[in-house]
Amino acid sequence: MGGKIVVNEELCKGCQLCITVCPFHLIQVSSNINSKGYHPAKFVDPERKCTGCTLCALTCPEIAIEIYKITGS
Amino acid sequence: MGGKIVVNEELCKGCQLCITVCPFHLIQVSSNINSKGYHPAKFVDPERKCTGCTLCALTCPEIAIEIYKITGS
Amino acid sequence: MLVKVFERPKSMFPVTTHYCPGCGHGIIHRLLAEVIDELGIIERVAGIAPVGCSVLIYNYINCDMYEAAHGRAPAIATGCKRVHPDLIVFTYQGDGDLASIGTAEIIHAAARGENITVLFVNNAIYGMTGGQMAPTTIIGQKTTTSPNGRAPGREGYPVRVAEMLATLEGAAYIARVAVHKPKYIIAAKKALRKAFETQINGLGFSLVEFLSQCPTNWGMSPQKAVDWVEEKMIPCYPLGEFKTPETKKTVEEA
Amino acid sequence: MLVKVFERPKSMFPVTTHYCPGCGHGIIHRLLAEVIDELGIIERVAGIAPVGCSVLIYNYINCDMYEAAHGRAPAIATGCKRVHPDLIVFTYQGDGDLASIGTAEIIHAAARGENITVLFVNNAIYGMTGGQMAPTTIIGQKTTTSPNGRAPGREGYPVRVAEMLATLEGAAYIARVAVHKPKYIIAAKKALRKAFETQINGLGFSLVEFLSQCPTNWGMSPQKAVDWVEEKMIPCYPLGEFKTPETKKTVEEA
Amino acid sequence: MSPFYEDVIIAGFGGQGILFIGKLLAYAVMKEGRNVTWIPSYGPEMRGGTANCTVVVSDEEIGSPVITNPRSLIIMNNPSLEAFEPRLKTGGLLVVNTSLVTLQPKRTDVNIVKVPANEIAIEVGNDKVANMVMLGAYIAKTKIVVKENILEALKKVLGKEKEELFELNKIAFEKGIEIGNM
Amino acid sequence: MSPFYEDVIIAGFGGQGILFIGKLLAYAVMKEGRNVTWIPSYGPEMRGGTANCTVVVSDEEIGSPVITNPRSLIIMNNPSLEAFEPRLKTGGLLVVNTSLVTLQPKRTDVNIVKVPANEIAIEVGNDKVANMVMLGAYIAKTKIVVKENILEALKKVLGKEKEELFELNKIAFEKGIEIGNM
Amino acid sequence: MGEKVLISGNEAIAEAAVQAGCRFFFGYPITPQNKIPEYMSKRLPQVGGCFVQAESEIAAIYMVFGAAGAGARVMTSSSSPGISLKMEGISYIAGAELPCVIVNVMRGGPGLGGILPSQSDYFQATKGGGHGDYRLLVLAPSTVQEAVDLIMDAFDLADKYRNPVMVLADGYIGQMMEPVEFKKSPPPELPPKNWAITGAKGRPRNLIKTLYLNPVELEKHNLKLQQKYLEMAKNEVRVENYMTEDAEIIIAAYGTTARITKTAIKILREKGINAGLVRPITLFPFPYSTFKEIAEKVDNILVVEMNMGQMLEDVKIGVCGRAEIHFYGRTGGMVPSYDEIAVQAEKIVKEEAI
Amino acid sequence: MGEKVLISGNEAIAEAAVQAGCRFFFGYPITPQNKIPEYMSKRLPQVGGCFVQAESEIAAIYMVFGAAGAGARVMTSSSSPGISLKMEGISYIAGAELPCVIVNVMRGGPGLGGILPSQSDYFQATKGGGHGDYRLLVLAPSTVQEAVDLIMDAFDLADKYRNPVMVLADGYIGQMMEPVEFKKSPPPELPPKNWAITGAKGRPRNLIKTLYLNPVELEKHNLKLQQKYLEMAKNEVRVENYMTEDAEIIIAAYGTTARITKTAIKILREKGINAGLVRPITLFPFPYSTFKEIAEKVDNILVVEMNMGQMLEDVKIGVCGRAEIHFYGRTGGMVPSYDEIAVQAEKIVKEEAI
Ligand SMILES: Cc1ncc(C[n+]2csc(CCOP(=O)(O)OP(=O)(O)O)c2C)c(N)n1
Ligand SMILES: Cc1ncc(C[n+]2csc(CCOP(=O)(O)OP(=O)(O)O)c2C)c(N)n1
Ligand code: SF4
Ligand code: SF4
Ligand code: SF4
Ligand code: SF4
Ligand code: SF4
Ligand code: SF4
Ligand SMILES: [Mg+2]
Ligand SMILES: [Mg+2]
User: Fold this and answer.
1) pTM metric for this prediction
2) Which among C6, C195, C36, C217 has a CA at the least distance from the CA of C126?
3) Within 10 Å of residue E99's Cβ, how many Cβ atoms?
4) Are 3 or more Cβ–Cβ pairs between H and A shorter than 8 Å?
5) Which residue from D66, D37, D45, D77 is spatially nearest to H200, judged by alpha carbons?
6) How far apart are CA H243 and CA G123, in angstroms?
7) Over pLDDT 90: what percentage of chain H?
8) Is C77 contained in some domain?
9) Contact across the interface for F42 and H175, Cβ inside 8 Å
10) B54: left (phi over 0), alpha (psi -120 to 50) or beta
């Protein structure tokens, strides 16, 4: 049972707090720039390590992260 | 070594606090009325009991009492 | 199957905030909205915004709201609560707002045991006006009006609001929390919920002091700011419950 | 031979006061004048009168004086002391003045560690304006604005100023005394002298809270008022030193 | 006949019931359908221990409620005599409590009624009702209201709480009327 | 010859050094003995992340420091082009940073100078000095001050603390002049 | 006619408020208006209302803000120094368009001043002692009965315009007793308070605010406020013309000064001088046109105030050079007597005659 | 000519104060004047002075009271809502006759309003936003240089009259940079501050107060204050007449609005319309006589303000019906442009011509 996060790039302000708290270092700074001029966070989880622990979302001041748990099939 | 108090009748407002605190009940309400309409306190010490303990003056809100100690001769 | 386990609270508008990257206000807003949602009280909430960076909180939370004058939110809350005792009334106030200009209002709201909930955001600075010293600025901290670092002999000592208010009988629930890291954030939400429950149960004045980061006016990156909360603020402002309706007694640090 | 052992302090004018018979203000004035005389500081004292029954204190004590606006004496004292650090600055304030309208000013003067001395006269009432409720009015006490007796649910709880201020680091000496009986009056003077010495030694903010009788607005004879202090006020407002420069820590009741 | 008009200043020490008899008068006037104003002194003189009030009575709209030269004076202590006697209108009425006012009125162009109010009050039972004696004398002289309306006002003002004081006040008042009618 | 007069609005994102080059310009003008006003935007647009300032230069007393229809524009982002282009005076000068401004200017009655400022800045070493490139181009076109006075201003503003940034800024500025002179 | 009661101005003001539906009062003691909060502390709980003695005048005015914003009828009262402390709050209330009633029982200033009657807060009340382009509707009663009537109207006017209304009285009006009848006229049709804070149940949430960071919006908001003030000027001006028809000299006065002036006019007319009184009842909106008209008819206007010349300026604006304006003022708690006023008026008429 | 420095209005105001001998500053942050306290917090300790960030504007004004009463040169600054909070204190300071300088960098109101420039506190400054018959000496700079000069004068004027002086600026003056020369003229002969609180050594004790329970004394005190205000009106009126000699229309404006008007006048004259400007520099005392005189010469006066018409009333009083008065105002942070002003003026002149 893993997890998955979705970062809303337009809401994100690139503060990188989520990056600091993810226990598996699954979040990075994107090279994109959003319309406000920020480099948003980017979810990079090739090995499907994300547990959906919500730590990243808990610490996000912009509520830019939504989290899903992958259950069952 | 005894004591003696002098009440300034014009300053006194007849609150009677001094009367309450004198350990020897040496102060009474005068029947005089001062120019403000108060009955001032009156020192009555026929038996020379006053010790000059200053309790009466300490409690007087109007500083209407002066106290003397009688020493020596 | 995908199950959403974290999403924007319903009582928040889906808009971007005006806060700087990494600002603690955003986190506290979310906690507030979550607690409102969980208690199911959004239709009977009245909020009072302060003057400070969070003056625009009404752009984010979808409940009846007043915007107060600087420092006067507790008085407005009093006026509102007395008219509508059934409303759940909260104020949201910065440290300049609550601990400086609004000192009398917060103390007397607490002394009256006014049945309201106060979110007090202590970021050790005046955010909105550009980084001047707050009553909560810590010793040594440089601000635009304590350019040489706050020195007790010149600028006095930090005010510990939670401790001070806990001396008042009307205060029913007083706690200090922080929002710089997830575990603190989780604890902060618990305290906030307890504060609202105190009000709902009619037990009197409740206040939660949030230590909050202001990267912009501290002149730090958001990550550095998070560390600064841990290393500098918490030692000056110990976390914990200083009063609870159960004890109604002063509790030394948690 | 007659030796005068008690007389009017030199720094007091030889005039009658405007106070009601049995009012505590007169006693506190005398203690103040005695301490000033004993410390020999009359030529470098600046006093700040409040708005309250004691607004005319400058008619009784022969030193440089300001008359403040209601509640603002600590701010005026701050302005004065910053200009003349060598002056010995005191404020004299009632409970309406200091604990109600002037709450912010007193707390921040204490928080700044402003090197001044405050005489705080707690008579549980607004004397000058005719007996309205004060923040210090005790539970059950009837006043002209708490006609059914102060009830916590309606009018809130009494504010304990000494305890509250003792939570502030800038406060160096905080004590509560009473003036209804000679032994208390003697203790009160000691505390007041200590407060002034704290200032003279540059140790920071000092405050003495005097429980004081207001026979007129309590609706009692002076003797009854004295008993009321003992029986009602002291249980609500315990006497003692709450902070001293030596400990700078909170001391539970003396 | 020009419309009815009267004004009176009542003055004495605080605690003598100065404002009280002014209010009784005002109540009674109101009862009789006339216009009336009652205004107390509330300035610095109060701290000095004196009190006074002004009652104006008129069939017309009342202009000034404060009076420079009153038509009548009810005087209960020395300082008040000194303060107000010179202001009394020529031909006016001066009711003076001779029990307490030791100074002699100087005016010869006014009507002076001397009332040993405290002595009478003590006679009827209590020094405190000297004010009612004064009021009685004043009303007897001016006939400004009927006695009954003062008594009704008295009843109303004393209320249930101080009902027991009614008789004493009434007697004092009636004694005052007697003196005034003498 | 009528007395010298010029006004320019400099606009872009906050953080692009908009206010900074405005100040350098104002310093240099002052150095040359002319009157100058520099006024920043400090209203709600600041919270929106944009910034602008207006510099007015004149031999006479300066009246309005805010300008409805400026003679020149230095534009560093798209929103600013949209906001200010329509207000430019006919025959005016528009210096536009083509590295960031992707919109095309619409005006045909003005003088347009396109400066790939960020590219040049990166070339000379740092993206942050794009503002200096823009300033150089503007000054080359208008000759409003001599180059040396801008450099003197730069030295002064950077101060001891940021001395090491002088060279980089200078080079960027000079590159800008080159482009302006092209 | 209902029953008359003998009551002091302060108590009458309080009772009138209660009868007008005021259920909330927030105040702080200050002489000479203490009977208002004291009366309210007893009376409001009897009618299911609530009295709070605030920690200060500032807290009081913001409690009013809160209660008015919550849709209640609410009042506060104070006297001059206390009113000065409310200036920021009054600007906020006006800016947020909250209806409430504010009573100023004026005393002598400046500073702590004294406790006796004065009219020296006229400017503060009418020109906006607080910041920004706001205006209060200002009512100046001259008798206790009028204080009662105006207080009752004040609540309706406040609701009608969503604007704070100030009742500007003075120490004498507060302390004086007069027979009074409480007769509330049926309230006018008033707009529902659908903007109030009551909990966003079944409706979009409400917002009460004064911040408009965008100046275009703030200007629009201000223009809307101005429109309201113009409406007031059109609909609400009240003024009493007393014996003005045949007047050769007009005295302009309001409040206590005006009723003293009526006695002065009697004296003057006994001496054969036909004096009249123009008494503004609304100080804002000010009866400029009354003064314009009267100035066409008389040569001299004597303004009498308990201050050093404040309404004087409005009279000047109204008269606009059409008549000579004179001023007689007492201040600091001194009340002009009818004699003094008569002497002043007589002097003007006599000099004119030379 | 000394050296010019490029400096923002806020910083220039602070530095000018220091150069004028101001050693104490008590303030509370508020946009758009934060650079003043910030500058002072750095600068004052360098010159042996003292800066205190007060807990509120109210505390700040009473710290000023304390320091001014102690004989120091002292200043405070704020912006509109913060100034409203100082109203009680200003009335006290005026009543106690303490010299000090108060700066209001005005922003849009009412309430929290906005942070952009405004002139909507004109009434508050000139008519006494606080209670009682007091007046401030009010100076309105139009450029940063003038802000510097007027601040320096303000301290001298405050000491000369023992009266608070208000410098009424707006957000643009505070934020704008201009080259400035700091040239303090030698201070006038000023009376010694023998009334100050310094410790009663070798002299009778001093007393600083505003309470006069006896109304006779309070009136006397007020008359003394009035005398001072008359003196100011006699000696201190400052006004700039700009291109008025041949003007067919006069524009009246002060502060930022006035300098924008100068550009408008240029435009108008290019179009052949001879416009002139009357710019009051002292708003109190107001240059009534200048307006009286100018009104004899032109038919139309256009008052331009960043408010809804406040100085307008003083112009009306000055003009007193001798010329037609028009008004153009922007408010809430909107600044009138020279174009708009020119259009307004042109319209008036053209309509006149029909
Ligand atoms: C009466 C008044 N004084 C001052 C201000 C200016 N002001 C706006 S926000 C603020 C302080 C904000 O600091 P804080 O309350 O700590 O909130 P933060 O921005 O740090 O969240 C000040 C002083 C104002 N708007 N009104
Ligand atoms: C701003 C302001 N608000 C209110 C008052 C009225 N006032 C004068 S004294 C006082 C309270 C006095 O009570 P306290 O401070 O307890 O002194 P006390 O008379 O009991 O000694 C009040 C409310 C005032 N003068 N100024
Ligand atoms: S949910 Fe947990 S594991 Fe997944 S990205 Fe966020 S912090 Fe990392
Ligand atoms: S915490 Fe939120 S705002 Fe910050 S970088 Fe991550 S997603 Fe973006
Ligand atoms: S000094 Fe002591 S003994 Fe003498 S009268 Fe006073 S209290 Fe009594
Ligand atoms: S204590 Fe003082 S004032 Fe009271 S009765 Fe005794 S002497 Fe008189
Ligand atoms: S200034 Fe500080 S408190 Fe304000 S939004 Fe930015 S980070 Fe947050
Ligand atoms: S009212 Fe009370 S405090 Fe005031 S003088 Fe009288 S007894 Fe003292
Ligand atoms: Mg803060
Ligand atoms: Mg008290």
Assistant:
1) 0.97
2) C217
3) 19
4) no
5) D45
6) 34
7) 96
8) yes
9) yes
10) left
For chain D, what is the domain count? 1
The DSSP secondary structure of D180-236, one letter per residue, reads: SSHHHHHHHHHHHHHHHHHHHTT--EEEEEEE---HHHHTS-HHHHHHHIIIIIHHH
Question: In the prediction, which pLDDT does A36 show?
Answer: 74
| Cα–Cα nearest to G94, from G132, G122, G53 | G132
Domain around F23: 5-180
Query: What does the alpha-carbon distance between residue F12 and residue F18 come to, in Å, rounded to a whole number?
Result: 6
Domain-wise residue ranges, chain G = 4-235, 240-353
Q: Which residues are paired to C174 by β-bridges?
A: C207, C243
C16 located within any domain: no
Interface confidence: ipTM more than 0.95: yes
- Residue at E137: amino acid letter: A
For residue B68, which ligand has an atom nearest its CA? Answer: 5
Is C2 domain-assigned? no
Question: How far is residue D248's CA from residue D239's CA, in Å, rounded to a whole number?
Answer: 17
CB-based contact (8 Å) between B36 and chain E?
yes
Count of beta carbons in the 10 Å neighbourhood of residue H199? 21
Question: Roughly what angle, to the nearest 10 degrees, separates helices F130-142 and F166-181?
Answer: 40
Domain span at residue D67 reads 25-253
- Name which residue sits closest to atom 1 of ligand 8, judged by CA: D127
Answer yes or no: are the C-beta atoms of D145 and G51 closer than 8 Å: yes
Cα–ligand 2 centroid distance for H219 (angstroms): 23
Domain count, chain F: 1
Question: Looking at F11-25, H35-49, H271-285, which range is the least confident one?
Answer: F11-25
The reply to whether C14 falls in a domain is no
Tens digits of residue pLDDT in H150-193 = 999 999 999 999 999 999 999 999 999 999 999 988 878 999 99
CATH 3.40.50.920 fits G240-353, yes or no: yes
Whether residue B73 is predicted with pLDDT greater than 60 in this model: the reply is no
Question: Cα separation of C97 and D54, whole Å?
Answer: 32
- Which residue's entry shows tokens 């600054």? H77
Cα G307 from Cα G283, distance rounded (Å)? 15
Going from the C-alpha of G280 to that of each of A19, G141, G167, G170, H313, the distances in angstroms are 70, 9, 13, 15, 19
What distance in Å separates the CA atoms of residue E99 and residue E78, rounded to the nearest whole number?
A: 11
User: Class of the H4-235 domain?
Assistant: alpha beta
Distances (CA, A) of H287 to F151, G314, H251, H317: 46, 18, 14, 10
CA-based nearest distance D82→chain B, Å: 34
Give CA–CA dist D132/G63, Å, rounded. 19
Q: What is the C-alpha separation between A18 and A57, in angstroms, rounded?
A: 7
Confidence of residue C248 (pLDDT cuts 50, 70, 90): low
Query: Nearest C-alpha to atom 1 of ligand 7 is from which residue?
Result: C127
C121: domain CATH number? 3.40.50.970
